[in-house]
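Amino acid chain:
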Amino acid sequence: MKISHVLEIVIALALIYFLFSTLVSVAFEWYSYKTQKRGTFLYKTIIDLLNDPVNQSYGATLYAHFSIDKLKRDKNTYPQYIASSMFADAVIDIIGTQSEQIHFQTSFVNDSSKNLEKIVLVENRITDPFNRFKAGVDAMNYSPLKSQLRAFYEKSQDYESLKKKIAEWFDDYMERVSGWYKVKTKRSLFIISLVISLTFNLDSIALVKKINSDEVLRKNLVVAAEKRAFQKDTTALAADSLKTGEIYSAVLNRVEKSSVLKDSIDKMYLKKTDSIVNEIESNAIPIGYHGWKDLKKTHGRGFIFMWIAGILLSAFSLSFGAPFWFQVMVKAINIRQSGVKPS
C-alpha cells in the first residue's frame, strides 16, 4: 500500500472523528449546562485559588461580588464561565474594599434632644483603584495569597498593568484547571461518545474497510477535510478548555440572564447539532444500520464481536476530543501536500 493511500485513509478517518467529536462536545456542553457540572467545578477551583484561611474566603466574596453574581442564571446556579478581565476587576475591587473605613454618623434634632433626625453612612475610601488595591493588600494579615497579590502590585505601574497581570494569572490557572476538568469528565465523555457511536452505528473497523476500498469516497472525504481544515471558524469550533467554555459557555452567560432568551439556549444547541449532522450527511459518510446481512458481509465470521469492537474503538477515539482530531487531520494534510522530497 502506497504512503499517499495511507495518508488519505488517515485524513478521511480524522475528518469523520473530528465531526463526531464535535457532536460529542456539543452534547457534553448541553449536558454540563443542564446539570451545572461546569459551573460547579469552576466554583470549586476558584474557591481553592483564592483560599486564604488567615484572612477570609475571597473566593466566596468574589462570587458574591455584584459583577459575578449577575452572571448567575438564578440563586441556585453558578456561572459556567468568568472572563479573566472580569475576574481581575472583581479581585482588585474586593481586595481594595479592605482599606475602607465605614461608620454611621447619627444626627439629632438638637443637642438636648433624644429624637434621632437621620443616620448618615460615612465612607473613608481611596478613590484611585490602584492605590486602593495596595492599601487593601497592606491591610491583610500575612499569607501566601497576600504575597502573591503584593507581587502583582509591585510589578505594576498603574491599574491597567495590574489588571493585566491578575488576568494572566487567572488564565494560567484556568489552563491547568482545563486539564483537571478533562480528567474528571473523561468517563462522561466516553459514555456520550459510546451513545453517539451506537446511535449512528459508527463502526471504525467497517469505516476503514469502506474508505480503503472505495476510492471515490476516500477522495471526496480528503477534499472535504482540506476545505474544513482551513475554515476560519474551525479553530474556534475545536476550542477545548474550561476558561473558554469550549463551544458555548461564554455565549450562555450573555443569554442566560434574559428570561426571553432562556428557551433559545436549548434551540442553540439543537441548531448546532443539526448543523453537524447535516455536514456528516453531506459528506456521505457510510454510517447507519442496514441489517445483519450487511454487517455479516462487512465483517465475515464473528461479525458481532467485530462490530462491538468497532463501536468501542469509535467511542474511545471520539473521547480524545475534536481538537486532537483536528490537529491530526491538518498534519496529515500538510504531509500529503508536501510530498516525498528527493534524496
User: Anything to note?
Assistant: Confidence is low (pLDDT under 50) at residues 233-261. Residues 38-181 form one domain.
